[in-house]
């Protein structure tokens, strides 16, 4: 008997949740081909910097000012992230813009609701890559339309949703409030649904930790 299980993945598109997604993807490929559990990832929004403007500001300068207040600390951060990224096939870059991600989340949630998890997954992948590897603005109209199109959405529809800034806005804001109400204070927050229990993991874990959690859910679901 097969069992369908959700993986709730709480993220921000300008956060190191990119690493966690890559590692979780690798973990899922390590399950046996005849695994009786089918896992579907559902994305939930969280904003690390809700006070950020829509226009944004220089990413490197922002991190240096608010997170790593010296050239030495910033250099250590970029070296560490570059090493982590290389291990997962991510070419981290540190230029570009930090900006408000509300409308990036609105896009993800709209198409997750209307077109399903596969399209939402494609949008998330594109948004991560554009921000972290191509130094693109994380929520400009151009970035959002490109993410939707890369995920399989027709360009006309993508532009309509991106351009209508009220489409899905209330629902997304409610989900963001729910995250605060549920005391989510760091991301990624990954909850793997099981028959007997759910397993919650916070922070970017190693691949083996995700594999072990998935296997526990599979074992307890049999």
From TrEMBL:
DSBA-like thioredoxin domain boundaries: 17-215
InterPro entries recorded: DSBA-like_thioredoxin_dom, Thioredoxin-like_sf
GO MF: oxidoreductase activity
Origin: domain of life: Eukaryota
SUPFAM superfamilies noted in UniProt: Thioredoxin-like
Name of the protein: DSBA-like thioredoxin domain-containing protein
Native source species: Extremus antarcticus
Origin organism lineage: Eukaryota, Fungi, Dikarya, Ascomycota, Pezizomycotina
């Amino acid at each position: 008997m097969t069992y369908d299980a959700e993986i709730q993945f709480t993220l921000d598109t300008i956060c190191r949740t990119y690493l966690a997604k890559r590692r979780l993807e690798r973990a899922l490929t390590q399950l046996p081909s005849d695994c009786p559990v089918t896992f579907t990832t559902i994305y939930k929004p969280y904003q690390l910097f809700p006070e950020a403007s829509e226009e944004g500001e220089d990413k490197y300068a922002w991190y240096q000012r608010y997170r790593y207040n010296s050239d030495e600390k910033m250099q250590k951060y970029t070296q560490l992230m570059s090493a982590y990224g290389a291990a997962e096939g991510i070419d981290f870059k540190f230029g570009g813009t930090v900006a408000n991600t509300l409308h990036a989340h609105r896009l993800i949630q709209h198409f997750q609701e209307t077109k399903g998890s596969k399209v939402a997954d494609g949008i998330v992948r594109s948004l991560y890559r554009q921000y972290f590897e191509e130094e693109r603005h994380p929520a400009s109209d151009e970035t959002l339309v490109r993410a939707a199109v890369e995920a399989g959405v027709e360009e006309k529809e993508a532009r309509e949703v991106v351009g209508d800034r009220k489409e899905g806005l209330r629902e997304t804001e409610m989900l963001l409030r729910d995250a605060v109400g549920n005391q989510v204070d760091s991301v990624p927050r990954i909850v793997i649904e099981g028959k007997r229990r759910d397993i919650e993991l916070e922070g970017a874990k190693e691949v083996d930790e995700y594999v072990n959690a998935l296997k526990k859910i599979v074992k307890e679901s049999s």
